[in-house]
Design brief:
With 89 residues, the protein is an all-alpha fold. The protein contains 2 helices and no strands. Helix 1 packs antiparallel against helix 2.
Length: 89
């Protein structure tokens, strides 16, 4: 998973640049992801889902990330999450 700063850095390779083919930019983004995480990905589209900001705080029961920042039920252990457990902005 990427922090917001790491995610922005990886995605910056996909920004339009004249003269650089999109496939090369995808390769650069995947390489940046690998250098940050140590994990190899072959499809750049999965990078869109490896962003911590898309997920909620850890479940207070099983400690896995909630599936959304506003989840009221843990998708892993299926326990109800108290509203006070959410990190509201």
């Amino acid at each position: 998973m990427l922090s917001e700063e790491e995610y922005q850095f990886v995605m910056s390779f996909l920004a339009a640049e004249s003269g650089v083919p999109f496939s090369d930019r995808q390769t650069q983004a995947l390489e940046a992801y690998r250098q940050i995480t140590g994990e190899h990905e072959s499809k750049f589209t999965v990078l869109y889902h490896h962003r911590l900001a898309l997920y909620g705080p850890p479940c207070s029961f099983c400690h896995k990330p909630l599936r959304t920042p506003r989840a009221s039920l843990c998708g892993t252990c299926m326990k109800r999450i108290p509203v006070s457990a959410h990190h509201l902005n």
